[in-house]
Write a structure and sequence with these properties.
The chain is α+β, with helices and mostly antiparallel strands. The chain contains 7 helices and 3 strands. The chain has a 3-stranded antiparallel beta sheet. It is globular, with a radius of gyration of 21 Å.
Length: about 200
C-alpha cells in the first residue's frame, strides 16, 4: 500500500539545563504521511554547535523524502549513503545522525501503519526486561532540582536513586566544586587540581 510523505517538521527541544556552556537540545524530526500517520525521530547530536549542524542536515535531506512512498525509504537511504560515501567521505556523524532520525521516524510510521510495535519490525524481542541505570544524576535527581556539589548532595541523590529501584547510577564527580561552581575542563582533567580538591 503506497503511503507518501507529505510534510516534515524539524525542531529543537528546550534544553533541560540551559546554564551549561553546551546545553543539550535534542533535535527532532516529525515525518507526516498522506493518511495522517506520522513518525518521530531524533538526530543523535544534541550538544553545542552540533545541534545546528543536525538541523541543517535534516533540512538538506528533507527534499529527498518529500513526495516519496514510505515503502521506498530504504532505497532512498541507500542512495543517500552511496552519494555521501562517494563525495563527502561517508557523510560523517552529522549526516549519519540525520539519516538515523529519518530511519527512526520510518519505523515509527511503519509500526503504526501495521498496528504493531517497532521492536517487532526490528526482528523481535530478545529479553523480557532491560535493567536501566540512573543517568546524569549529578544534574539533579528526584526532589533535588539543582546540580550536585557536596558529598551530602550525592548521598541524598543516591538514596533517591536506590529508592526508585535503580541498581546503578551515572555521576560526573568533576563537574562542580564543593561550592557548586562549574570546574573548567582544563582543571577537571588535571590530576594536581583533583588532588587539591580531595
Amino acid at each position: 500500500m503506497a503511503l507518501k510523505i507529505t510534510a516534515i517538521d524539524i525542531f529543537i527541544l528546550k534544553p533541560a539545563f540551559a546554564e551549561r556552556p553546551f546545553p543539550v537540545k535534542p533535535v527532532i524530526c516529525r515525518v507526516y504521511t498522506e493518511e495522517g500517520i506520522y513518525g518521530v525521530g531524533e538526530a543523535g547530536i544534541a550538544a553545542g554547535v552540533g545541534v545546528n549542524a543536525a538541523v541543517g542536515m535534516l533540512r538538506d535531506l528533507a527534499p529527498c523524502f518529500l513526495g516519496q512512498d514510505i515503502a521506498e525509504f530504504e532505497a532512498i537511504a541507500h542512495t543517500l549513503k552511496n552519494s555521501a560515501y562517494g563525495h563527502v567521505s561517508g557523510g560523517g556523524a552529522v549526516f549519519s545522525s540525520a539519516l538515523s532520525a529519518y530511519d527512526t521516524a520510518y519505523f515509527d510510521i511503519k509500526g503504526k501503519q501495521l498496528g504493531i510495535p517497532a521492536w517487532q519490525l526490528l526482528g523481535g524481542r530478545l529479553r523480557d526486561h532491560v535493567d536501566c541505570y540512573a543517568s546524569q544524576v549529578h544534574d539533579g535527581w528526584g526532589t533535588i532540582s539543582r546540580r550536585l556539589a557536596t558529598a551530602e548532595d550525592y548521598a541524598e541523590a543516591t538514596r533517591i536513586v536506590c529508592g526508585q529501584g535503580f541498581k546503578a547510577g551515572k555521576y560526573n564527580l568533576s563537574a562542580l566544586d564543593r561550592e557548586g561552581n562549574p570546574i573548567p575542563l582544563e582543571k577537571s582533567t588535571n590530576t594536581a587540581y583533583a588532588h587539591e580538591l580531595a
